[in-house]
Amino acid sequence: MQRSSWLHPKFVASLHNSSSRNPLHFRKQQTTKPYHYNDHQKSLCLRHTDKLQEVRRIVDETRGEKETLFLIDSLQKLCVDYHFEEEIEAKMHSLYEKQLKIIDGEPNNIVEVSLLFRLLRQAQYPISTDVFYRFLDSSGEFMASLANEMEGLISLFEASNLNFGGELMLYRANEFSRIHLKPYRTSLDTDLAVHIKQILENPYHLTLQRFKARQILDNNTSKSYYNFNIVELGKMDFTMIQSLHQKELKEVTRWWKESGLDQELVFARVQPLKWFIWPMTCLPNPKFSKYRIVLSKVIAFVYLLDDIFDVEGSLDELYLFTQAIERWDHSSMNSLPDYMRACFKVLQDTINEIAQIVVEEHGWNPIEYLKKSWIQLSKAFLVEAKWLIEDEVPTIDDYMKTSTISCGVPLVLVHIYFLLGHGATGDLLENLPNLISCPTRILRLWDDLGSAKDEEQKGRDGSLLASLRKENPHWSSQVARGKVMQMIEEAWEELNKESFSPSASMFSRDFVIGCLNTARMVRVMYNYNEEHKLPMLKEYINLLSKQV
């Protein structure tokens, strides 16, 4: 049974003296209904604050390089690091200055060196793959003795997934660690086998962080590696944020019912949970509650417009609909069906709501950029509708140019960009930064690889595979799919470089996380099985909804 959210900032402030260190320091939120708190909820909130102070003491007292590495890794993997951003930043700077002491330390410290490499790279510090040279034999391969060090293999494997592209050392590290970790999957220790299986199938960097945290909390073997107090804080944090998300989802569902669109768009996919999962994943920090709710509406309209163009509208209607969106004028909808007019009206209200949030919180109005993003999306949908009606297979370049807009990722990330307080640049929508274009390509390519469509979608989409086969008729289906997988891997490497290079500092850390989490979510949302179902999505929902 879902519990109502009890994380309202007024309640927290009444229990504790609010400060910048308050674990539940939220942005101002609009509240439409009063919050009611039972004794259990009050007790958990107070116990959470006490446990937070215990962990803060541990953080403050941790001094040694090795202990500091494991501490930061624990806080991040259990998703409680957002409580200690300043402390972690200071400790990461210290580790960077002392990196040679760690790298040149004990000869068998593969765990520490791999962890140092991953943490520094994630924190946008420059660090070379040369740190792994000491673990190579005379032939330039990783030493055979490392095959017996399970923890070292895990640490090396996790580090190898942060490849910037063309880093041969990390390619070798990935292959070596993967090969030698596989035998542990058949271990007589069931928990250990599950632990290794989860690591290989869902590497930390490529997987949703809260998904991994929940796996850790559920697996006795992996949980035993972490400090008890940090684990307990992780459990409490998970429960409290879970309750907050349930409240947010109720707000999204309420908005949908009150919009009246459920009566107008009877042909469309109505999936509030799927709409909400995207912003819930992209912006995990509790303080972004209001943003998650309004972004769920944005994502809803991406799905709804997709269904209008792909399922319901005639080509003539779609031309007029696109023109009306381009003019951003509701009166120009008069000659169109009622459902189109109703949809556009609620879309306008939603975008105006977002623009007003940005005005109130950041001092300027991004409405022209937001409107332009919806114009681009509708034009891309129209091009795809023409392709499908005319049974045309576009060129690879034309397909990617259009489909990377129609997937909706640029539009959503642009809305996040402004909500997080970034200023406008004149050519933002014409020349998307790689931080946006990379997760866009990853989603587009994964979706095409799945080929099986959403089980509730009635229309049909084009596919890069079809364009590849048309331009390369000698390719087999397997070769074409291999090419797409290669493109996904290259996009991930480019995203790594954009996210973790010092140049990424021009974007807020929350925006970088949002772009990374969008790419991470793709494997969950588009990993179809042979029955056209989404088992990873189902597991993700189950893990995040059940009690810890």
UniProtKB/TrEMBL annotation:
Record-level Gene Ontology MF annotations: magnesium ion binding; terpene synthase activity
Cofactor section: Mg(2+)
Domain Terpene synthase N-terminal: 28-198
Pfam families: Terpene_synth, Terpene_synth_C
Record GO biological process: diterpenoid biosynthetic process
Keywords assigned by UniProt, alphabetized: Lyase, Magnesium, Metal-binding
Domain Terpene synthase metal-binding: 257-494
Coiled-coil features, chain-numbered ranges: none
Domain of life of the source: Eukaryota
Protein name listed in UniProt: Linalool synthase
Species this chain originates from: Zingiber officinale
